Structures are given as C-alpha cells and as structure tokens.
Amino acid sequence: MLLSMQGISKSFAGIAALQSASLEIGESEIMALVGQNGAGKSTLIKILTGAYQRDEGTIRFQGKDVSFSSPAESQAAGIATIYQEINLAPQRSVAENIYLSREPRRFGLLDRKAMREGAAKVLKVFNLDIDVDLPVARFNAATRQMVSIARAVTQNARLLIMDEPTSSLDEREVEILFRTIRTLKQNGVAVVFIGHRLDELYAICDRVTIMRDGHTVAVSAMNDMPKMELVRHMLGRELAAFQALARDAGSDDARPVRLELKNAGSGLRVRDVDLSIRQGEISGLAGLLGSGRTETARIIFGVDRLERGSLHFNGSERNYAEPAAAIADGIGLVSEDRKVDGIIPDMSIRENMTLALLPKLKKAGIVDRARQDEIVSRFIRSLGVKCASPDQPIKELSGGNQQKVLLARWLCTDPSVLIVDEPTRGIDIGAKSEILKLLRSLADEGLSVLMISSELEELLAAADRVTVLSDGMSVAVLPRQQLSEQNLLAAMAHQIDGASGELA
Amino acid sequence: MSAFFKSFAPKSSGDLARIGVLIALAALILFGALRYDNFLSPFNILSFLRYNSMFALIALGMALVIMTGGIDLSVGAVAALASVVSALLSPISWYAGLAGGIGAGLMVGLLNGLVITRLRIQPFIATLAAMLAANGTALLLANNQSVSVSYDTGFTVIGQDDFLGFPIPAWIALAAYILGWLFLERSPSGRHVLAIGDGEQTAALMGLKVERTLLGVYAVSGLLAGLAGVILAAQFGAGQPTEGVGWELFAIASVVVGGTLLTGGSGSVGATLAGALLLGMVFNVLNFENGLGWISLSAYWQSVIRGLFLLVVVVLQARLTSKSTA
What we know:
By secondary structure, chain A is α/β, with parallel strands linked by helices.
C-alpha cells in the first residue's frame, strides 16, 4: 500500500467537512475519487498535501506515518498535485514552471541551459515538442497540463493527484492525457483521478473511492462497480420526506412552450442539449457535476453565446448576446453560488431585492423610494422572509431567507422564465421545502421555472418533468409519470437508450 | 523564421514595452543633443548621473516590489529619514553615516515586510503607514530642520566625488543594477519573485517560500531607499527631513514606464533603469528649454509637462501591448 489515510476528520467553524473518511492507494494504482460537490474530496486531498491540517486520523505514505504541514513538504515526500487551473505561473516560461523551487544551479546561480534541456527532455517523453522559453500562458489548456505533469515527474512524484484533469480538454486531448497517465503508471507512479465523467473514469481507473457528505461510502474495483451503483452511492439514498408538490400530469402537454433549446451547444461543456420549458411548469434539469447543467443555464441567460443549435423564446428564435437581452425577454437567473454572484452581503434587504428593478424604479433619475418600499414589503410578506426590517443587511439572514430575497429580486421584475440553480443548496431542511412550495405556487400562477438540482428528492418532489444531462448532452426527458429515483439514477449514469426515456 | 532571428523576437507583451522605453529614451537624447549646445557636455552628463542615481536606486527596489504584485509607498520618506540619520552619524566616521542610513532604510523595509507577511496587511496600507511614520521620525530626529553633515570625516565623498571620471553615486547605482539584474535573471530567488507576482497561491502550491521572498523584497526596497538617502545627504551636505516627497511616485512611474506590470509577475531590471533615466531626461530637457530663453516654464508647468509625457508613454505602451496579445 502506497498511501493509507484512515479515520480522517476535519471541521470548519464547527461544521464537519470530513467524518472519519479514508483513502487507500496501492503502488502504481490509478484511483478514481468521486463525489458530489461538498462530499469532501478536495478537503481530503488538501489534508493529504498539507494545505489543511486534520483534526483526527492517520496518514501513512510509503510505510511511514506522515503529517505534512505544507504543500512544499508533501511535494518533497513525493506527492504532487495538479489542480484544475491554478497550477502554473502563467507569465513564466515552460522551463521555469517545470523547475520552480528546484532549479538546477551552477555556482549558486540558475543553470539555464540545464533547465532548458531538462525541460525539453522530460516533455519529449510525453511527445511534446515546444519552445520551453515561451511563457506558459501562450499554450492551450492541454499543453499546460502536460507541463504540470512534467513538473510532477521531475519532482520524482510517487503519487500524482489530478483534480478534474479533463474538464477543459477536448476528446483528442483527453486521449493524449490518458496515454500520459498510463506512461506514468508504467513508471511506478500512482494517480488519484478526481473526475465526474463516468466514461472517463471507467476508461482509465483501476479502482474507485466514492465519497458523500464527508464519509467514504464505497471502495471498489472499477469493473466491479456498475455505473448505476456508483451514481447511487454518490447521490445517496436517504430521500428526505418532501411533500409531493407536482401537479397531476396530463394537462402539461397542452401548455404552450415558453422556451426551447434544440441541439444547443457552446464550448466543450454543452455539446448537444434539447430542452423545453412550458408555461406554468417546473422543468427540472438533472445531471452529475460537470454534466453541463449550469452551462446550459448560462446559454439561456445570455452569459455564454449559443454556438450551435437554436434557442426559441415564445416561438421566435433568439441568441442572447448578454444577460440584459435575456432579462428584457423576462428571463431571470438565481445562480448556484449565492455568496459569489448573488447577494451583496453588506447591502440591505431592500437594496438587494430591488437591484434588478432599479432601472424601472427611476423617477426623474432618482429611485422612487415609496414604490421601492411598497414592492419590498409586499415580497417580504408574500415570500415570508423572516427579518427585523427591510434595512437589515442581507448577510445577517439565514441561507433560506437570503434565497427568498434573491428569488424576490427576479420576481419583482415580473419574469416569465425563472432559472434557479441549486435553489436549496446550503439551507436547512425546513426552509428547503418552503422554497420548493414557493416555486410550485409561482408555477401555478403561470411562471415557467427551470430548476437545476443535484438533489434527487427535490426533483422528485417538485418537478413536472426532468431533463437529464450527461457530458453536455441531454440523454433523457422523464415526464412526471416516469419520474422515479430508479429512472433518474439510470439516466444520470447514462444507461438510457436515447432521449426517449426508455430504459436500456 | 530561423532560430537566430527568433531569439530576438519579443516573447511577451512586456518585451515590447521595454523596447518602447529604450526608443523613447534614445529619441529624447537625440532631440536634446540636436537642440541644445551643451546637452552632451561632460558637465551635464555627470551632474545628470549624479542626481538621478538616487532615483534609479529607489526605482530598482520599487521594481522588485511591484514584480511581486505589491507596492512600496514608503521609499520617499525612508530616503528622507536615512538622509537625516546618516547626517547625524557622519561626524563619527564616513562609514558610520553610510551604515546608519542604510540600516535605517533596511529596518523600515523589514518592518514593512513583516507587517505585510505576518499581519497580512495590504502592501498599500502597510507602506502608507510606514511612510507617515518614517516621515515623522525624520522630522523628530532633525528637529524639523536640515541637519548639516560633517565635512571632516570624508562622508561627502559618497555624494560629491568621482571615481575613474564618473560620479560615485552613479557607480553605486550601476553596481546595484548589475546585482539586481543578476538576482532577477540568474538566481532562483529572482525567478521566485516573478512567480509570486504571477499568483501567490499558485507559487505557494508550487512549494515556493512566499513569505520569506516577500520579506526579502521589501527589505531590499527599504535598503536601497536608505542608500539613496545617504547619497542625498552626502551630495547636498545635509540631511533633509522634508525631502523625498513624491519620490515614491517618481519610482513607480519609472517602473511602469519600464514595462513592468503593476499587477506583478513580469518586469525587467534594465528597462526600469531606462525608465528612471527617461523620466530624469525629461526634466533635464525642460531645464535646457528654459535656458534657451524662448519660453520660461515654471516648476509647475514642468510638472504638468512631465505628467503629460508620462501619460503619452504609458498609452503608447498599452497600445503596443494590446496589439501583441490580440
């Protein structure tokens, strides 16, 4: 056993991120490490590399108990990590990036010739012939990744951790990467491969470790773990008892289609998505992390340009160049990460709520305070926002109440389509069902909701229909009658035949 | 393109800006030489070098700081403080004056570095505080007036004498730039300075000792500002607690004109020297223009013209840079 992490626990500000998690990796083994957002993968890795310190547990590496206090220490011991983006110093040359912190020296000064030749030599092993004097920013993502790997190789790494290494690569580049990983394996290097694209995991990994909610929930040889079983482990099965909120099926197909994507594509993440949202329904969008859900929402909202296929709004073709254009059509987006691009923490509830409405609230160039007050208090009442006053800073509210304010931000603009990305993330169970109920009643009033969710129980409880994405493609549309845990899991594991909803 | 020519091709947008500053400097020298009689006279050249060495030294330290993505606003006040300390110590011996001035600068620099790395205070704020404190200390030590240096211990040689026909301050600046170039281009630590400016988090993940490097860079900036203060006192025969106002901006301007990005991660020692010389040269040309008697520019107008010139150079560089990356 090359590495054995046992009983690892870690809390942040009293909230447990890891609870007795474990990870074991054999010599020259390629281990898949999977789990949803927040499952604890990256915390576990950061504890291994010394970026975080564990609260409890033991780590044995190459037969010795270890405890790294910094990434520099774990690197020196032979553990190299390749993060998704922040790997290299972009303005420094390829050769420098490979050797930073371990530069070859002559008489105390840099040995630039040795550096250049060494870099070219190690890149040649991976069939890469580039000018090593150019800054890495000049190269594409795949080449930069090779440079990162080359850096790890020159560090004599025994264990290489790759965090979603294929996320910015196209198919041909993924093939090159896999060849590289196999070369590493032959040279006695073990790899931890963190990823979400199941096909890739099955193609390259020997074993898989699955994490959920800070626990290691399953470890298995890759071939002994059916895809569906893997997805089930990742998502968990403890379905919370949500009241079934969806309306009776049947009348749905009669409703007019508000918004429709056909063969939509943009960049690498969205490849071929069919999706329709009808008037007055909650249309669910499911898929594993990295399947292109958020990216699809970004196309609809005009953040990313539609590059292939078509987008229709109320029957007429659209290609929104910017969110303002989508907003003008009455489309709203409540984003996945409230803290990053949702709330403005120090601003009041009033200001946060009317941010999108301000242009319409102007009277002679000045905000019409009376109308603002009227709108704010109306939504505080109708959505049941629990707060001391509209002037309270939003950061003082609970997650659920913050989310209500964000919903109100769009609702007060009177939208026709509202996209909610993980609407209940990070809020407690009681508030969750309240938010779902709220979305349901809005839909009943005619609003079209696109609900992106990783939580099966949410989709089962609230959605009228669920489109399932896998690897940037819509692989199934499950109408209300076919909506079950079993079918959703199967579709997410991509075991469904085409988009017809038939199980393979 | 053959490999030979390729080796001369600019590899980054910064290279273009650096070529730009050299062209501007050459053009300005040519302009001065053609227009004014004594522009290339030994007297003008030597006094130009003697005076501008101080700014060149400060600009060098500033360049290293800016390459890490930081800023050092305290250098002007530190130079003033160092000039006072060295003037006060100059009666003991010339090297007491020298060591005292450098030591004072080094201490403020180390303090800056510690506050920035240990207390995690933004460089802008940390060095702004240091600027105010150094300024106050200088005034306190000097009793709010200039402090005469001793002419008996040979201290003034540092600022006023020549060696092999060149002013000693120019030799000091030249030595500092050669060391600075060796450090930045040829030593591992120098490359770490640039890598840290490219992204502190990345640099830390790559195993670089970020805190130690930053501490060193601010210490060097303080030390060089101290050295400039010593030269100031020795050159003008007095420690000047009220001098140094705005020097930090002059240094920042030199660095920026030299093509170093304020965001860090790129830059060159040689182009910083060219930037400092360019800004000094603008000043010199304006003096000559006044001397011609056609027009009479007050110090205020000179300042306005320098500002405009700086703007033009920076805009030109931005144009060059954006074209090369487009």
